[in-house]
Amino acid sequence: MHNRVFRVLFVLIIQTIVAFSWLSAPASALTQEQQILNEAWRIVNNAYVDDTFNHQNWWLARQKALKQPLSNREETYTAIQKMVGILDDPFTRFLKPDQYKSLQVNTSGELQGVGLQIALDSETKQLQVVAPLDGSPAQKAGIRSRDRILEIDGVSSAELTLDEAAARMRGTAGTSVTVLVQHEAETPKEIKLVRDRIALNPVYAALDSRNSGIPVGYIRLSQFSANAPTELANAVAKLEKQGAQAYILDLRNNPGGLLQAGIEIARFWLDEGTIVYTVNRQGILGSFDANQPALTRAPLVVLVNQGTASASEILAGALQDNGRAQLVGDKTFGKGLIQSLFDLPDGSGLAVTVAKYETPNHHDIHKLGITPDRIVPNEPITIEQVGTQADSQYQAALEVLTAKTVVAGAT
């Protein structure tokens, strides 16, 4: 009896050793396709913000994926997409080589397409507009923040991943795409968009001395691309020479971009203070702080709306919580997660949620947004009407600046 029990235990031990040796098989024992999948798994395993992986068994996900026959690269891509999809995080996603390259190009300042920043609503899973880019075909057609895109060229957006939807709307200038768009509870309508080459100069600046009695430097920042900090610094220097005594920083319909660009631009307006806190998977707080003299100490108002998202909210929250600026407009979009890009060996890549952020006063704005100091409802206007008498939010910002300048002059 004793020997029989020993033999059974011995067999079980051998089986366990064999099983674990397969689970922990070295990378050299994997095929090329399995190595790519395994690297994708490893990146998420090490970097993802939630160490419960949204309550999914991430180790088991790897084993199931590796058991699949991966005979070509497309099958590998599909397996990675399914594996990452169990996280149910629309911001963590796999990107094929062309998608990955396109995402990198977009943040560098070049784009061809319809000019829409899009996201998946985490609750409804519907394709949603974050913001149209300034001067883009989408903006000229009247598409607005939080509009839902139901179809793209007759294909239901529910059948597409976020990157597949983006790929269908990108394309050569002069070609067209038809989208079915719904604004709030209105009847959906088809809109034909002609793709164009969109120059992503992220900064527009002008001196306005007509309306408020004081010279106001107006700066519109459309996205946080790699060249945004340099362009904004140049704009402030030019407006200072022109005699600007106050500033309006327009972040409306700015969907974000590079986190580092947002931090650099916050430092242009702050002498000191925390810009943003980041919280990683261990709950450890990190922070980015102002550490250099501001470019100007002139009074500042920041314009925000529902299309103000991500890095824009970091900047707006930093300026509001440090008392550097008042916010005017609508509540912001509410995206408080930070993604990083990771290369895979074949030119594909991953966008992975690596942290969440909090404003200097420790407000977690994800899905909540930032409430302006002065709420002024957004009214549909054309790009030509932005910063004019027809722009009620801009006019409200001028009123705030006038009051601040009068008070400052009296003290």
Tags for this model:
411 residues, 34% helix, six-stranded mixed β-sheet, alpha+beta, disordered N terminus, 11 helices
Please count the helical segments: 11
Shape: globular
Helix proportion range: 25-40%
Mean pLDDT: 86
Give me the strand/helix succession: HHHHEHEEEHEEHEEEEEHEHEEEHEEEEH
Based on helices, strands and strand pairing, what is the structural class? Answer: alpha+beta
State the end-to-end CA separation: 97 Å
Placed side by side, the strands forming the largest sheet appear as 10-11-12-15-16-19
Summarize the main sheet.
Answer: 6 strands, mixed
Please give a structural write-up.
The structure is a single chain. Strands 10-11-12-15-16-19 form a six-stranded mixed β-sheet, sandwiched between helices. Strands 1, 13, 14, 17 and 18 form a five-stranded antiparallel β-sheet that branches. It has eleven helices and 19 strands. The longest helix has 22 residues. The N terminus and C terminus are likely disordered. Helix 9 runs parallel beside helix 10. The N and C termini lie far apart (97 Å). The chain has 411 residues and is of the alpha+beta class. Strand 17 and strand 18 form a beta hairpin. The chain is globular, with a radius of gyration of 25 Å.
Summarize the structure.
By secondary structure, the protein is of the alpha+beta class. The chain has helices at 2-23, 32-47, 58-67, 73-85, 97-106, 137-140, 162-169, 228-241, 259-269, 311-321, 392-410, and strands spanning 93-95, 110-113, 116-120, 127-132, 148-152, 155-156, 176-182, 189-194, 196-199, 203-208, 216-221, 246-250, 274-279, 285-289, 300-304, 326-329, 337-343, 349-358, 374-375. Helix 2 (32-47) runs antiparallel to helix 3 (58-67) and helix 2 packs parallel to helix 4 (73-85).
